[in-house]
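We emphasize that the prediction below concerns an isolated chain of 502 residues; any contacts that depend on oligomerization or on bound cofactors are therefore not represented. The input was used exactly as deposited, without trimming of termini.
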Amino acid sequence: MTSHRRVPDTVPMQLTLDPDGGPLHQQIYQALRTAILRGTFRPGERLPSSRELARDLGVSRTTALGAYTRLLSEGFVVGKAGAGTRVAPSLVAGRATTGRSAPRASRAITEAPAAPRLSAAVQRLFEEGRWRSIPREAVPFAAGIPSLAMFPLTTWTRLAARRWRLSGRELLLPGDSQGYAPLREAVAKYAVTSRGVRCTAEQVVIVNGAQHGIDLCARVLVGPGDDVWLEYPGYAPARGMFAATGARLVDVPVDEQGLDVAAGHALSPAARLAYVTPSHQEPLGTTMSLERRHALLDWARGADAWILEDDYNGEYRYDTNAVAALQGLDQHQRVLYLGTFSKTLSPAIRLGYLIVPPALVQTFARARLLLDRNSGVAEQAVLADFLEGGHFARHIRRTRALYRDRHRTFLDLASRELDGLVTFDEAPAGLRLLGWLPPDVDDQEIVREAARRGVVLESLSYRAPLGMLPPALSFGFAPYGAAQTRAGMRTLAEVIRRARNE
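Result of the prediction step, given as a token string:
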């Protein structure tokens, strides 16, 4: 409803109230406060009485009084018997008569705020870290999303209801900073039997997904001036997290055997830590050879360095059995192993795990306690039941079979729809594929134009800020059926041909 009135000795009044927009007194308060801050109502200017305002707006006087009472308590207006309600005169100086701070009206409100001063850590995080949000809906060819249609929602819901019935208010108590004990037991069992990791439950630290695990390792193990080996090209957000510690980033090239350890040794033999994705390199998709794995472990031992192994897609291999974790080869306790459930179950399940050497367990538990205490207890408890009941193992088997089929379907369709435009590496693992573009094409421009047409991609240059690599695109394929995939490829083909003036 809109009311519009002019009263002698009062300001022109026009307020629009939404019957579905929340409490009416709150709407009136917000509208008057905004008008005062904008200078529409000048300091000292008289406002309608509560009775007049209520009549004009068609609300109760109690509602109008509620709005005025809040404005009065915050110092935006003043009131006297016989003098009515007026905009606080002291707002002209930026301070209300009550002594409370109030925003400046009129002139000050239109001035652009000064750029905020940021910490050096955040500046380095933003400079080096490159981030892309994951779409809320599966849009070809957004990566990092499993098939949510395969998520066992009925089983998860049943387990959640059962856990709340059994544990009740225990789930509301503060959690262990290292993680819910039954979940740590289940994770240790899974990592040992399925990923070839060597550990006990005491070495498991539950984290809020892989990125949280990387950040925690960076904070605990790396300091200003330390050198950190990063795969090049590699996982873009990790660059920012290590840079934020003040570390010096050492970009070590990756080839068909994985991280080039000899090159890393030549660039920085005394680095503090190496961050690697050996089971399925991100983004090239290669697997680190056994020779390179042993060379990396030997370097870490000799340099008294740490290795952070990010096994983000280790469960999904389509040509052979899954490759065992690097950590399982480690005889000298130099490897920290990082896993996540966000890539296998759902991006919304922000739970992952670090498996740390025994000497670091208490350090990580204390750091976690001080930084953010613990992950959500209830979700950890449900996940523990999910693992212990064998549901996770079944989910991995089912999704591995689906993704193997979609991997093959994607390549078959690409051979027809993108023939001569994109050449694919048949990386037999993971949930994404890398496609190489013709050398005369700008991969970032292709990404921008494809996005305008509803196709989501990522350029290789996004992962390789130093250049020196040919143009390429990263394609997610796990959530997309044949029809979606074909349509996305046809749109992309038009974009590439237009870019090449074909």
